[in-house]
Amino acid sequence: MKKIIIFSLCFSMLAGILLLGIYFSGSWMLIDKRDSNIINQDVYTNENKLRRAAEQGDMVAQNELGVLYEKAKNHTKSAYWYNKSAEKGYSLAQYNIGVAYENGRGVSKNYQKANDWYRKAAIQGYSKAAFNLGMLYFEGKGVPQDYRKSREWFMQAAAENNTMAMYAMGRIYYYDLGVPKDDRQAIVWYQKGVDLGSMRARNSLALLYSQGGDGFYKDRVKALSLLIASACQGYVVAQNNLGVLYSDGAEDVIADHKKAYAWFSVAASNGLEEAIKSQRNIAEKMSTQELEQAKNIAIKYIEKYPSPINEDDTYKSNTECKYP
To answer: Which CATH fold would you assign to the domain 36-160?
Structure first.
């Protein structure tokens, strides 16, 4: 769903550090379930009652039934029930059918219809739909590319505490995507995401503090803390970046080849192919005994820090991966 863009920056005068950043590309693709205020109602947790309620026209039950079919990989039926619920005005279902149309799941891919359904849900205040609508305008899917409109929808989503939108706004300002480059504004938006536990914003803010910029100072200690928190959440880019940082160290960060190997191993285990070569390279710098110790650390890390199976940008941020 997302493309990995490699960019390098000089982490110190002595060592060039390769850091990875995920360029936000593509919308939020996960289906959404029930509202929290009805989550304990028996009708929505009993499949037979759910089916009867859906057939009788209950829009929440219709969306939930669509979710059940989605999980069973029956996308045609899931789209059918999402559409039934969406037509009654249920924002979660409008978002879900929008996702279906954007990805061609159970229906023919149709960006214009995805746009229409996202808009209906976004107008009702559903932040994921607002973010996805912003992405459609950003990428020009089903509509002419329009950075201004994409920013408007991102800002609406961000106002509703959507951390992906905050992260997107940070990257817009950092990479001058439709606006003049503004590192300070990038930091403002990344910090908003960090404050709410965004793994992506934590990684991106770490990159800015690793180099310093217009109006803010270089702070390698803060960068390290942010990367550790993001890597803890399972963000594969941050896991790789920690490996890079520990490979050679820089100023206030002490090199640690064992930790570097372990984090490269985690990133590789979580699907980042670029980390495999780095893992091999760092292994060559260690003795047999050190490598064995590094492998033992890696085994523990791989078990402890898997990438989240969903797209929860704030995964574990309020438990074991708190920052600061």
So the answer is: 1.25.40
